[in-house]
Design a protein that fits this description.
Distance between the termini of chain B: 18 Å
Number of strands of chain B: 10
Radius of gyration of chain A: 12 Å
Largest sheet of chain B: 8 strands, antiparallel
Shape of chain B: globular
Oligomer: heterodimer
Mean pLDDT of chain B: 91
Largest sheet of chain A: 5 strands, parallel
Helix content of chain A: 40-55%
Number of strands of chain A: 5
Number of helices of chain B: 4
Strand order of the largest sheet of chain A: 2-1-3-4-5
Strand content of chain A: 15-25%
């Protein structure tokens, strides 16, 4: 069982990911933008983070960089629309461990989490 | 409306709806409309800016919207509440995002604005001089009409005019 932070500006997507994670025995923390994600990371120290890329206030890439500054071992997977290869590559260079493609698939989320926790 | 805009949206809406709902939607006959759009009960609206600009709308009844989000989240939505609204907006966002990637690969890079929802029937939205590509899709939860009102912008428009 892990503590997982789900970061997405869409409430429905947060709820959906959290539901799948909770049904598989994980504890969840939510944040609705990158700025909140950085604050929540400092407060909760989650074992893994699922981070949407396009968000208001602070996007996922900027939040990833802030979190990695705070914790160089942070385990973050980016959640992205199909085809955002350039952003995904930048995120991987900035320390993201994996990425999950939208549309949302529960198996993909759980597989990504397993990879993160194993890293 | 350029013919190159059609396939990215047909492909995107088919792929995303099949992935989200678990069954492939059936596509109806694609058409072009110039007259104002009269809203259905729920319309997700996503604005597009870049080499192509305009907006994309996803129109459906509240019953269809509730059926879709119920399937996606695996729980019943007896009302079209704020969470259900977020789900429908996100479907519009993911479909348009996927189409934008395909458009970018075809040489028309563009960005999306955050999705919005128009709730309520019979509101008229004019896209003025921009024709709308209308793609009817039939799902197990009812019909979704995808309305694509885009035109060339920026350097793409200059290229086309040259």
């Amino acid at each position: 069982m892990a503590k997982v932070m789900v970061v997405d500006d869409a409430a429905f997507m947060r709820m959906r990911a959290c539901k799948v994670l909770q049904e598989n025995g994980h504890e969840t923390v939510q944040a609705e933008n990158g700025l909140e994600a950085v604050k929540q990371y400092a407060a909760h120290h989650p074992d893994a983070v699922l981070m949407d890329i396009t968000m208001p206030e602070m996007d996922g890439l900027a939040a990833l960089k802030e979190i990695r500054k705070m914790d160089p071992n942070a385990r973050v997977a980016m959640v992205t629309a199909m085809g955002q290869q350039a952003i995904v590559m930048e995120a991987l260079k900035a320390g993201a461990k994996d990425f999950v493609l939208k549309p949302f698939q529960p198996d993909r989320v759980l597989n990504a989490l397993q990879k993160l926790l194993a890293s | 409306m350029k013919v190159e805009f059609i396939n990215p949206f047909v492909q995107a809406v088919t792929e995303v709806l099949e992935s989200e709902l678990g069954t492939a939607p059936e596509r109806g006959i694609i058409g072009l409309q110039r007259s104002a759009y009269t809203s259905n009960e729920v319309t997700a609206v996503v604005a597009v800016a870049g080499e192509v600009a305009g907006m994309v709308m996803f129109a459906m009844t509240a019953k269809t919207a509730q059926g879709m989000v119920s399937k996606m989240l695996g729980q019943d939505f007896p009302e079209f509440d704020a969470l259900a609204q977020s789900g429908i907006a996100e479907i519009g966002n993911v479909i348009t995002g996927r189409a934008a990637v395909l458009l970018s690969e075809a040489g028309y890079p563009s960005d999306l604005a955050p999705p919005m929802l128009l709730i309520g029937k019979n509101t008229m939205i004019s896209t003025l001089d921009v024709q709308r590509l209308v793609i009817p899709m039939e799902t197990e939860f009812g019909s979704i009409e995808v309305q694509v009102a885009l035109k060339l912008s920026g350097t793409a428009a200059k290229r086309a005019a040259a």
